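User: I need a structural model of Sporulation integral membrane protein YtvI from Paenibacillus zeirhizosphaerae for a docking pre-check later this week. Nothing fancy, just the predicted C-alpha coordinates so I can convert them on my end. Input:
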Amino acid sequence: MLPLYKKYWRTAFDIALIALTVYLILFISSQLYHIAAPVFLSFVVFLCIEPMARYLHKKGMRKPFASAISVLLFLVILLALFFGLGLIIVTQFARLADDLPNYMSITQQAFKELTAFLQGKIASLPPTITDRMNEYFETVTKLLSTWGTNALQRIIAFLGSFSTFMANFGIAIILAFFLSMEIDLWKVIARKKTPHTLKTAVSFFRNHVLKAIGSYIKAQAILVSITFVIVFVGLLILGAGNAFTIALVAAVFDILPLLGVPVIFIPWAVYLFIVGNTSLAIGLLILLAVAMLVRQLAEPKISGNSIGVSSAFLMLSFMIISLSIFGVAGLILSPILLILIKELWQQGYLQQWIRFPKEEFDEPPFLAKLQEGDAPPSEEASKSMT
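Assistant: Understood. Predicted C-alpha coordinates for Sporulation integral membrane protein YtvI:
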Protein backbone atom coordinates (compact mmCIF):
# COMPACT_ATOMS: atom_id res chain seq x y z
CA MET A 1 0.00 0.00 0.00
CA LEU A 2 2.90 2.36 0.69
CA PRO A 3 3.93 2.69 -3.00
CA LEU A 4 0.31 3.48 -3.84
CA TYR A 5 0.24 6.25 -1.24
CA LYS A 6 3.54 7.63 -2.50
CA LYS A 7 2.26 7.80 -6.07
CA TYR A 8 -1.21 9.20 -5.37
CA TRP A 9 -0.90 11.34 -2.26
CA ARG A 10 -0.74 14.53 -4.34
CA THR A 11 -3.74 13.44 -6.40
CA ALA A 12 -5.75 12.62 -3.26
CA PHE A 13 -4.74 15.95 -1.69
CA ASP A 14 -5.79 17.93 -4.80
CA ILE A 15 -9.16 16.18 -5.06
CA ALA A 16 -9.81 16.59 -1.31
CA LEU A 17 -8.94 20.29 -1.54
CA ILE A 18 -11.36 20.81 -4.45
CA ALA A 19 -14.11 18.86 -2.64
CA LEU A 20 -13.54 20.92 0.53
CA THR A 21 -13.71 24.14 -1.49
CA VAL A 22 -17.02 23.11 -3.10
CA TYR A 23 -18.44 22.09 0.28
CA LEU A 24 -17.42 25.38 1.91
CA ILE A 25 -18.91 27.38 -0.98
CA LEU A 26 -22.23 25.53 -0.70
CA PHE A 27 -22.26 25.76 3.09
CA ILE A 28 -21.47 29.49 3.13
CA SER A 29 -24.00 30.12 0.35
CA SER A 30 -26.75 28.32 2.26
CA GLN A 31 -25.95 30.28 5.44
CA LEU A 32 -25.90 33.56 3.53
CA TYR A 33 -29.26 32.71 1.93
CA HIS A 34 -30.83 32.21 5.37
CA ILE A 35 -29.40 35.54 6.48
CA ALA A 36 -30.11 37.59 3.33
CA ALA A 37 -32.71 35.67 1.32
CA PRO A 38 -34.33 38.83 -0.17
CA VAL A 39 -30.96 39.92 -1.60
CA PHE A 40 -30.47 36.62 -3.42
CA LEU A 41 -34.07 36.64 -4.68
CA SER A 42 -33.66 40.21 -5.88
CA PHE A 43 -31.04 39.06 -8.40
CA VAL A 44 -33.56 36.57 -9.82
CA VAL A 45 -36.21 39.29 -10.11
CA PHE A 46 -33.62 41.63 -11.61
CA LEU A 47 -32.86 39.12 -14.37
CA CYS A 48 -36.59 39.06 -15.20
CA ILE A 49 -37.21 42.82 -15.26
CA GLU A 50 -33.90 44.16 -16.62
CA PRO A 51 -34.39 43.23 -20.33
CA MET A 52 -37.58 45.29 -20.54
CA ALA A 53 -36.07 48.14 -18.51
CA ARG A 54 -32.98 48.17 -20.74
CA TYR A 55 -35.14 48.18 -23.88
CA LEU A 56 -37.23 51.13 -22.66
CA HIS A 57 -34.09 52.99 -21.61
CA LYS A 58 -32.60 52.57 -25.09
CA LYS A 59 -35.80 54.04 -26.53
CA GLY A 60 -35.11 57.26 -24.64
CA MET A 61 -36.99 56.73 -21.36
CA ARG A 62 -35.18 57.60 -18.16
CA LYS A 63 -33.94 54.54 -16.30
CA PRO A 64 -36.02 55.01 -13.11
CA PHE A 65 -39.25 55.19 -15.15
CA ALA A 66 -38.14 52.28 -17.33
CA SER A 67 -37.39 50.18 -14.25
CA ALA A 68 -40.72 51.12 -12.64
CA ILE A 69 -42.70 50.17 -15.76
CA SER A 70 -40.79 46.89 -16.02
CA VAL A 71 -41.51 46.06 -12.36
CA LEU A 72 -45.21 46.87 -12.78
CA LEU A 73 -45.42 44.69 -15.88
CA PHE A 74 -43.66 41.88 -14.01
CA LEU A 75 -46.13 42.16 -11.13
CA VAL A 76 -49.15 42.22 -13.48
CA ILE A 77 -47.99 39.07 -15.27
CA LEU A 78 -47.17 37.35 -11.99
CA LEU A 79 -50.51 38.24 -10.38
CA ALA A 80 -52.44 37.26 -13.51
CA LEU A 81 -50.68 33.92 -13.54
CA PHE A 82 -51.34 33.28 -9.86
CA PHE A 83 -54.98 34.38 -10.00
CA GLY A 84 -55.64 32.48 -13.23
CA LEU A 85 -54.19 29.25 -11.95
CA GLY A 86 -55.74 29.82 -8.54
CA LEU A 87 -59.20 30.30 -10.07
CA ILE A 88 -58.93 27.10 -12.10
CA ILE A 89 -57.58 25.10 -9.16
CA VAL A 90 -60.18 26.43 -6.71
CA THR A 91 -62.99 25.70 -9.16
CA GLN A 92 -61.85 22.15 -9.70
CA PHE A 93 -61.24 21.57 -6.00
CA ALA A 94 -64.76 22.86 -5.28
CA ARG A 95 -66.08 20.34 -7.79
CA LEU A 96 -64.01 17.66 -6.08
CA ALA A 97 -65.49 18.69 -2.71
CA ASP A 98 -68.99 18.32 -4.16
CA ASP A 99 -68.14 14.84 -5.46
CA LEU A 100 -66.39 13.77 -2.27
CA PRO A 101 -69.56 12.51 -0.49
CA ASN A 102 -70.26 10.27 -3.46
CA TYR A 103 -66.71 8.94 -3.36
CA MET A 104 -67.01 8.31 0.37
CA SER A 105 -70.28 6.41 0.00
CA ILE A 106 -68.71 4.24 -2.72
CA THR A 107 -65.73 3.57 -0.47
CA GLN A 108 -67.96 2.74 2.49
CA GLN A 109 -70.03 0.34 0.41
CA ALA A 110 -66.90 -1.39 -0.87
CA PHE A 111 -65.55 -1.60 2.67
CA LYS A 112 -68.81 -3.13 3.94
CA GLU A 113 -68.73 -5.77 1.21
CA LEU A 114 -65.10 -6.53 1.97
CA THR A 115 -65.86 -6.75 5.71
CA ALA A 116 -68.76 -9.13 5.13
CA PHE A 117 -66.58 -11.33 2.92
CA LEU A 118 -63.75 -11.38 5.46
CA GLN A 119 -66.08 -12.16 8.35
CA GLY A 120 -67.22 -15.30 6.62
CA LYS A 121 -63.63 -16.35 5.99
CA ILE A 122 -62.28 -15.35 9.40
CA ALA A 123 -64.93 -17.38 11.23
CA SER A 124 -63.33 -20.58 9.95
CA LEU A 125 -59.78 -19.56 10.92
CA PRO A 126 -58.06 -20.58 14.18
CA PRO A 127 -58.17 -17.96 16.98
CA THR A 128 -54.39 -17.48 16.95
CA ILE A 129 -54.45 -16.32 13.35
CA THR A 130 -57.26 -13.85 13.95
CA ASP A 131 -55.40 -12.44 16.99
CA ARG A 132 -52.27 -12.03 14.92
CA MET A 133 -54.24 -10.31 12.15
CA ASN A 134 -55.68 -7.90 14.71
CA GLU A 135 -52.18 -7.13 15.98
CA TYR A 136 -50.96 -6.46 12.45
CA PHE A 137 -53.96 -4.24 11.78
CA GLU A 138 -53.29 -2.28 14.97
CA THR A 139 -49.63 -1.84 14.00
CA VAL A 140 -50.56 -0.64 10.53
CA THR A 141 -53.13 1.75 11.98
CA LYS A 142 -50.56 3.28 14.34
CA LEU A 143 -48.08 3.58 11.51
CA LEU A 144 -50.63 5.34 9.30
CA SER A 145 -51.54 7.64 12.16
CA THR A 146 -47.86 8.56 12.63
CA TRP A 147 -47.47 9.19 8.91
CA GLY A 148 -50.59 11.35 8.89
CA THR A 149 -49.34 13.41 11.85
CA ASN A 150 -45.95 13.91 10.22
CA ALA A 151 -47.63 14.88 6.94
CA LEU A 152 -49.76 17.51 8.69
CA GLN A 153 -46.72 18.89 10.48
CA ARG A 154 -44.84 19.12 7.19
CA ILE A 155 -47.79 20.91 5.57
CA ILE A 156 -47.92 23.42 8.44
CA ALA A 157 -44.17 23.97 8.20
CA PHE A 158 -44.45 24.40 4.43
CA LEU A 159 -47.19 26.98 4.81
CA GLY A 160 -45.05 28.88 7.30
CA SER A 161 -42.00 28.77 5.05
CA PHE A 162 -44.12 29.76 2.04
CA SER A 163 -45.43 32.84 3.83
CA THR A 164 -41.84 33.73 4.75
CA PHE A 165 -40.80 33.21 1.13
CA MET A 166 -43.57 35.51 -0.12
CA ALA A 167 -42.49 38.22 2.34
CA ASN A 168 -38.88 37.87 1.18
CA PHE A 169 -40.03 37.92 -2.44
CA GLY A 170 -41.90 41.18 -1.88
CA ILE A 171 -38.77 42.77 -0.44
CA ALA A 172 -36.76 41.28 -3.33
CA ILE A 173 -38.96 43.08 -5.87
CA ILE A 174 -38.21 46.42 -4.21
CA LEU A 175 -34.48 45.63 -4.11
CA ALA A 176 -34.55 44.56 -7.77
CA PHE A 177 -36.16 47.89 -8.71
CA PHE A 178 -33.36 49.87 -7.06
CA LEU A 179 -30.73 47.54 -8.52
CA SER A 180 -32.15 48.08 -12.00
CA MET A 181 -31.94 51.84 -11.48
CA GLU A 182 -28.33 51.71 -10.29
CA ILE A 183 -27.00 48.84 -12.39
CA ASP A 184 -24.73 51.07 -14.51
CA LEU A 185 -23.09 52.49 -11.38
CA TRP A 186 -22.56 49.02 -9.91
CA LYS A 187 -21.03 47.82 -13.20
CA VAL A 188 -18.50 50.67 -13.11
CA ILE A 189 -17.62 49.92 -9.49
CA ALA A 190 -17.28 46.18 -10.22
CA ARG A 191 -15.12 46.85 -13.28
CA LYS A 192 -12.72 49.09 -11.34
CA LYS A 193 -12.63 47.45 -7.91
CA THR A 194 -12.89 43.69 -8.63
CA PRO A 195 -9.62 41.70 -8.52
CA HIS A 196 -8.50 40.16 -11.82
CA THR A 197 -8.72 36.60 -10.46
CA LEU A 198 -12.32 37.13 -9.43
CA LYS A 199 -13.09 38.73 -12.81
CA THR A 200 -11.72 35.66 -14.59
CA ALA A 201 -13.81 33.35 -12.40
CA VAL A 202 -16.98 35.39 -12.93
CA SER A 203 -16.37 35.54 -16.68
CA PHE A 204 -15.90 31.77 -16.83
CA PHE A 205 -19.04 31.17 -14.77
CA ARG A 206 -21.12 33.57 -16.89
CA ASN A 207 -19.90 32.43 -20.30
CA HIS A 208 -19.88 28.69 -19.68
CA VAL A 209 -21.78 27.60 -16.56
CA LEU A 210 -24.73 30.02 -16.65
CA LYS A 211 -25.33 29.29 -20.33
CA ALA A 212 -25.45 25.56 -19.65
CA ILE A 213 -27.70 26.11 -16.62
CA GLY A 214 -30.13 28.06 -18.81
CA SER A 215 -30.18 25.17 -21.27
CA TYR A 216 -30.85 22.74 -18.42
CA ILE A 217 -33.74 24.80 -17.04
CA LYS A 218 -35.19 25.06 -20.55
CA ALA A 219 -34.90 21.28 -20.94
CA GLN A 220 -36.64 20.63 -17.62
CA ALA A 221 -39.43 23.04 -18.58
CA ILE A 222 -39.91 21.12 -21.86
CA LEU A 223 -40.02 17.76 -20.04
CA VAL A 224 -42.51 19.03 -17.44
CA SER A 225 -44.67 20.54 -20.20
CA ILE A 226 -44.67 17.21 -22.05
CA THR A 227 -45.77 15.40 -18.88
CA PHE A 228 -48.49 17.98 -18.22
CA VAL A 229 -49.90 17.73 -21.77
CA ILE A 230 -49.87 13.90 -21.78
CA VAL A 231 -51.57 13.64 -18.39
CA PHE A 232 -54.10 16.39 -19.15
CA VAL A 233 -55.11 14.95 -22.53
CA GLY A 234 -55.16 11.41 -21.14
CA LEU A 235 -57.44 12.39 -18.25
CA LEU A 236 -59.79 14.19 -20.64
CA ILE A 237 -59.97 11.07 -22.83
CA LEU A 238 -60.63 8.87 -19.79
CA GLY A 239 -63.32 11.26 -18.58
CA ALA A 240 -61.75 11.76 -15.16
CA GLY A 241 -62.73 14.92 -13.34
CA ASN A 242 -60.41 17.76 -12.33
CA ALA A 243 -58.10 16.98 -15.24
CA PHE A 244 -56.27 20.33 -15.20
CA THR A 245 -55.55 20.30 -11.45
CA ILE A 246 -54.38 16.69 -11.44
CA ALA A 247 -52.17 17.28 -14.49
CA LEU A 248 -50.69 20.37 -12.84
CA VAL A 249 -49.95 18.47 -9.61
CA ALA A 250 -48.45 15.62 -11.67
CA ALA A 251 -46.19 18.11 -13.47
CA VAL A 252 -45.02 19.54 -10.13
CA PHE A 253 -44.20 16.04 -8.85
CA ASP A 254 -42.48 15.30 -12.14
CA ILE A 255 -39.92 18.01 -11.35
CA LEU A 256 -38.81 16.13 -8.23
CA PRO A 257 -36.36 13.29 -8.92
CA LEU A 258 -37.18 9.83 -7.54
CA LEU A 259 -40.87 10.77 -7.19
CA GLY A 260 -42.69 11.75 -10.35
CA VAL A 261 -46.15 10.88 -11.64
CA PRO A 262 -46.42 7.39 -10.02
CA VAL A 263 -46.81 9.03 -6.59
CA ILE A 264 -50.25 10.26 -7.71
CA PHE A 265 -51.44 7.62 -10.14
CA ILE A 266 -50.60 4.39 -8.30
CA PRO A 267 -52.60 5.16 -5.10
CA TRP A 268 -55.45 6.47 -7.27
CA ALA A 269 -55.50 3.28 -9.36
CA VAL A 270 -55.43 1.11 -6.21
CA TYR A 271 -58.40 3.02 -4.83
CA LEU A 272 -60.32 2.55 -8.09
CA PHE A 273 -59.65 -1.18 -8.03
CA ILE A 274 -60.98 -1.34 -4.46
CA VAL A 275 -64.21 0.51 -5.29
CA GLY A 276 -64.73 -1.59 -8.43
CA ASN A 277 -64.01 1.05 -11.11
CA THR A 278 -61.68 -1.31 -12.95
CA SER A 279 -61.87 0.31 -16.37
CA LEU A 280 -60.74 3.73 -15.14
CA ALA A 281 -58.02 2.14 -13.01
CA ILE A 282 -56.61 0.26 -16.02
CA GLY A 283 -56.84 3.45 -18.08
CA LEU A 284 -54.85 5.36 -15.44
CA LEU A 285 -52.17 2.67 -15.38
CA ILE A 286 -51.91 2.80 -19.18
CA LEU A 287 -51.69 6.60 -19.03
CA LEU A 288 -48.99 6.32 -16.36
CA ALA A 289 -47.02 3.89 -18.52
CA VAL A 290 -47.27 6.19 -21.55
CA ALA A 291 -46.18 9.26 -19.56
CA MET A 292 -43.21 7.45 -18.01
CA LEU A 293 -42.17 5.89 -21.33
CA VAL A 294 -42.24 9.24 -23.14
CA ARG A 295 -40.31 10.82 -20.27
CA GLN A 296 -37.66 8.11 -20.30
CA LEU A 297 -37.24 8.38 -24.06
CA ALA A 298 -37.12 12.18 -24.11
CA GLU A 299 -35.07 12.88 -20.98
CA PRO A 300 -31.63 11.55 -22.10
CA LYS A 301 -31.92 13.48 -25.36
CA ILE A 302 -33.30 16.74 -23.96
CA SER A 303 -31.87 16.95 -20.45
CA GLY A 304 -28.61 15.06 -20.91
CA ASN A 305 -27.56 16.90 -24.04
CA SER A 306 -28.55 20.25 -22.57
CA ILE A 307 -25.74 20.02 -19.99
CA GLY A 308 -23.38 17.92 -22.08
CA VAL A 309 -23.82 14.78 -19.96
CA SER A 310 -25.63 11.96 -21.71
CA SER A 311 -25.13 9.33 -19.00
CA ALA A 312 -28.34 8.90 -16.99
CA PHE A 313 -26.39 6.77 -14.49
CA LEU A 314 -23.92 9.60 -13.84
CA MET A 315 -26.65 12.23 -13.47
CA LEU A 316 -28.78 10.13 -11.08
CA SER A 317 -25.75 9.04 -9.03
CA PHE A 318 -24.62 12.64 -8.67
CA MET A 319 -28.14 13.67 -7.56
CA ILE A 320 -28.25 10.90 -4.91
CA ILE A 321 -24.82 11.83 -3.54
CA SER A 322 -25.71 15.53 -3.42
CA LEU A 323 -29.01 14.70 -1.71
CA SER A 324 -27.20 12.62 0.94
CA ILE A 325 -24.64 15.36 1.66
CA PHE A 326 -26.57 18.62 1.29
CA GLY A 327 -30.23 17.53 1.53
CA VAL A 328 -32.87 19.03 -0.75
CA ALA A 329 -30.60 21.97 -1.56
CA GLY A 330 -28.01 19.52 -2.86
CA LEU A 331 -30.64 17.85 -5.02
CA ILE A 332 -31.48 21.20 -6.60
CA LEU A 333 -27.84 22.26 -6.96
CA SER A 334 -26.57 18.90 -8.27
CA PRO A 335 -27.16 19.77 -11.97
CA ILE A 336 -25.29 23.06 -11.43
CA LEU A 337 -22.36 21.26 -9.84
CA LEU A 338 -22.33 18.68 -12.62
CA ILE A 339 -22.33 21.46 -15.22
CA LEU A 340 -19.49 23.21 -13.36
CA ILE A 341 -17.38 20.05 -13.23
CA LYS A 342 -17.98 19.36 -16.91
CA GLU A 343 -17.00 22.88 -17.92
CA LEU A 344 -13.89 22.84 -15.73
CA TRP A 345 -12.89 19.60 -17.40
CA GLN A 346 -13.74 20.85 -20.89
CA GLN A 347 -11.80 24.11 -20.49
CA GLY A 348 -8.69 22.40 -19.08
CA TYR A 349 -8.83 23.65 -15.47
CA LEU A 350 -8.92 20.18 -13.90
CA GLN A 351 -5.64 19.39 -15.63
CA GLN A 352 -4.12 22.35 -13.78
CA TRP A 353 -5.59 21.56 -10.39
CA ILE A 354 -5.30 17.77 -10.10
CA ARG A 355 -1.86 16.19 -10.47
CA PHE A 356 -1.57 12.54 -11.52
CA PRO A 357 1.62 10.45 -11.75
CA LYS A 358 2.49 10.55 -15.44
CA GLU A 359 3.93 7.03 -15.51
CA GLU A 360 0.56 5.54 -14.47
CA PHE A 361 -1.46 6.60 -17.52
CA ASP A 362 -1.11 6.40 -21.27
CA GLU A 363 -3.45 9.39 -21.48
CA PRO A 364 -4.14 11.87 -18.63
CA PRO A 365 -7.52 11.11 -16.97
CA PHE A 366 -8.82 14.67 -17.29
CA LEU A 367 -7.59 15.34 -20.81
CA ALA A 368 -10.63 16.99 -22.40
CA LYS A 369 -12.06 15.51 -25.57
CA LEU A 370 -12.89 18.74 -27.36
CA GLN A 371 -16.18 19.04 -29.16
CA GLU A 372 -16.78 21.17 -32.22
CA GLY A 373 -16.56 24.85 -31.35
CA ASP A 374 -14.68 24.33 -28.06
CA ALA A 375 -11.45 26.19 -27.48
CA PRO A 376 -8.42 24.02 -26.70
CA PRO A 377 -7.02 24.22 -23.17
CA SER A 378 -4.02 26.39 -22.59
CA GLU A 379 -0.52 25.01 -23.08
CA GLU A 380 0.23 25.75 -19.46
CA ALA A 381 -2.72 23.59 -18.40
CA SER A 382 -1.60 20.64 -20.50
CA LYS A 383 1.94 20.77 -19.03
CA SER A 384 0.98 21.35 -15.43
CA MET A 385 0.67 17.67 -14.41
CA THR A 386 3.65 16.20 -12.68
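Before docking, keep this in mind: Confidence is low (pLDDT under 50) at residues 369-386.
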